[in-house]
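Reminder to self: tokens first, then the designed residues, so the page reads top to bottom the way the pipeline ran.
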């Protein structure tokens, strides 16, 4: 495992061969290391990951886990998972070897999180504790299922939280009508809340609606997409679950209201450039 010094830059680089998935040798070259030891550690770590040898650090296995899972999950799901792992799990386990992590290690990690309090003296909720534990367990399950790890130490240690049932609060019809009367002069907010209240659709589903989703012959609206703000960008994705793809029957009065709203948007558009708007404009 030699490392080489680039005399022009004063930095170190490694050059080595590994077998790809077809069994053919391929060359890997990586430059820019400040020290020889850093360059050699990169080569060692790369080869261990390539061989799927679990005599590797948790941090290195997380790279494999990311490559395996990121494209299989919805973007927002992956970002949530990755954030929990990077901020709550990696700081404790990253330098430990996968095949040496024990249930006792997991219990120590759990105890640190259970004892944690923020500046206001508030700790993690029972639901969030369970979520953090589940993310750790998912990594070990993946290692057991696909990379021959012998056991799942997170399962042996047991969960550190539980799902908390939260009371669902609903507006009565009278309460909602009082609210809607207060915002009736804000037309876009009014029509958006009308759709949310009378159909029960999710906020992201409402924000992703287009005129083409409405069928005024049948008085229905089709839910087939959802709006999200991810990594500073507006993104239209599929709904939360497959069952979320659905067609909702609209009350006759709501269908009439939406017709009025579309006519208002169309009139505004004609006044600007005579092009019919495609997306419903909730945010103006």
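Designed residues (284 positions):
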């Amino acid at each position: 495992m030699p490392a080489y010094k680039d005399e022009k830059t004063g930095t170190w680089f490694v050059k080595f061969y590994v077998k790809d998935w077809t069994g053919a040798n391929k060359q890997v070259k990586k430059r820019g290391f400040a020290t020889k030891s850093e360059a050699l550690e990169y080569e060692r770590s790369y080869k261990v990951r390539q061989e799927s040898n679990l005599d590797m650090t948790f941090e290195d296995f997380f790279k494999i886990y990311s490559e395996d899972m990121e494209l299989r999950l919805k973007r927002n799901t992956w970002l949530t998972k990755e954030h929990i792992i990077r901020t709550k799990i990696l700081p404790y386990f990253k330098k430990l070897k996968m095949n040496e992590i024990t249930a006792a290690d997991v219990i120590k990690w759990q105890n640190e999180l259970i004892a944690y309090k923020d500046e206001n003296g508030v700790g993690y909720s029972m639901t969030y504790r369970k979520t953090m534990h589940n993310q750790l367990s998912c990594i070990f399950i993946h290692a057991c299922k696909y990379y021959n790890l012998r056991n799942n130490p997170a399962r042996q240690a047991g969960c550190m939280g539980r799902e908390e049932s939260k009371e669902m609060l609903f507006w009565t019809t009278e309460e909602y009508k009082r609210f809607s009367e207060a915002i009736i002069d804000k037309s876009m907010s009014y029509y958006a809340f009308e759709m949310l209240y009378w159909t029960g659709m999710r906020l992201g589903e409402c924000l992703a609606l287009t005129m083409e989703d409405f069928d005024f012959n049948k008085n229905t609206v089709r839910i087939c997409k959802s709006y999200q703000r991810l990594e500073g960008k507006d993104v239209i994705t599929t709904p939360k679950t497959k069952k979320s793809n659905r067609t909702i029957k609209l009350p006759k009065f709501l269908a009439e209201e939406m017709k009025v709203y579309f006519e208002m948007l169309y009139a505004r558009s004609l006044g600007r450039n005579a092009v019919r708007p495609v997306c419903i404009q909730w945010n103006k």
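The first strand starts at residue 4 and ends at 6.
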